[in-house]
Protein 1
Amino acid sequence: MMTRVDAAARPVLLRRGFALEYATLAWNVAGLVVLAVAAVAARSVALAGFGMDSLIEIGASVVVIRELSGGGEERRRGALRLLGAGFGLLALYLLAQSTFVLAVGFRPRPSALGTGWTAATAVVMFALAWGKARVGAALDDPVLRTEGRVTLVDGLLALAVLLGLVLNGVVGWWWADPAAGYVLVCYAVREVRDVLAAGRDRAAPAR
């Protein structure tokens, strides 16, 4: 049973959860525009791919906003399945992008806009992921905690893209970005497995 303190704190925590998700949504919508401009100007596959990743984060935020608005256990399990699908799409995107860049040896032009945005995105996503982890734990909400890991992956991906852009521009190591992408593929695949396992556990009847 929820204690009196918990009952009083829950509305505040829910408002924080909504604020975190709307902030994530707004940042990634803006990112679609900024990264599209930067990718075209630099002819950068990495920046274009990072813009596509923003779509996954937008979808994940929408899922969590719906879940925080209310719903039963079945709706929560459905939200976890959607987040698992989001991680799966992220893994496929990273695998395809990294393989393509390595295969063609594509070297983008330097992009001050792309470098600045990815650096800012890394900072913002790590801060949002930390907030979601804390609020999700306080609410005991697995969907918010899981989407927080999606946000963490987004921050790690921003660092990988940023590192690739810097190393390519400074020392000509064009392969640094796709190499980092493969590391993140392994992380995303692990998260798919964990999310699906959590969904099965919640679906299992209590004994």
Note: The chain has a mean pLDDT of 83.
Protein 2
Amino acid sequence: MSKPFIAKVPYEASHPTGLAVYCSDGRFTNAVEELARHLGHERIDTLTIPGGPGLLNRWSADYLESDMITRAANFLIRGHHIQEVFLLAHAGCGYYQTRHGALGAEFVAEQQLKDLQAAAEELRKTHPGLTVHTYFVRPQGTKITFEPLS
């Protein structure tokens, strides 16, 4: 039997006040956490699933997917007293490629932006006073760029 691993990062009992909702593609995890720190959040709650915040758009996602992620986001926002949410979609997302790839790259990108906007509107409507940020994330060589959307 092997020994347990003990993290060097200390446990903090208080919940973070920021929540990042993004695709589960691990190529972006460290960069999302870096963005959060840049924006003043040393720790964040995360909700990651293929397709990320696109699943919050009940009009384009499958009902069961949308219902699950919407309930999870609402739980975290209310239960952890989240004040800021970061919704992030990324270029080359496999979820969107599988779902919409036959319609072309331009359609996929447009759908991701529509889904981000719809998700942000839904969260703002459901949680008045919540600050919601939207970003489109692009790898550029070995760098990752976060493009804020208005």
Note: The longest strand covers residues 131-140.
Protein 3
Amino acid sequence: MGWIIRELPGWYLEAEFHGVWVSPAGQHVDLTSRQGDAALLFLPDPGRAYRGEGLPNRYLALSPSPEVQAVVRMEEMHARLRSEAESLGRRERVQPGSAGRNDPCPCGSGLKYKKCCGHAAR
């Protein structure tokens, strides 16, 4: 897990929390990249793990222009709303008691039910 960094030249840098596969040779391979979606950089983040909740993208303005600052604030707000809606939608699809405590969570997070959607059911 780590951050993919992209640049919209003259406007902002965008950091997206993302998982990649590490090959036996130690290379980071992005299995979900799209054609023409070039990332500048992948920064591993060993201190952070995916816990079933999306993290909003982070932004850094590349200009002090008021227009650029406004766009960055808007992008941050939309990223936060998308992340919250995704997490809420995933949790709402899971019925309490639909899985055993140690079973994989039905929301698809990859975590055990007790560490994910079952955490609030205690």
Note: Residues 2-94 form one domain.
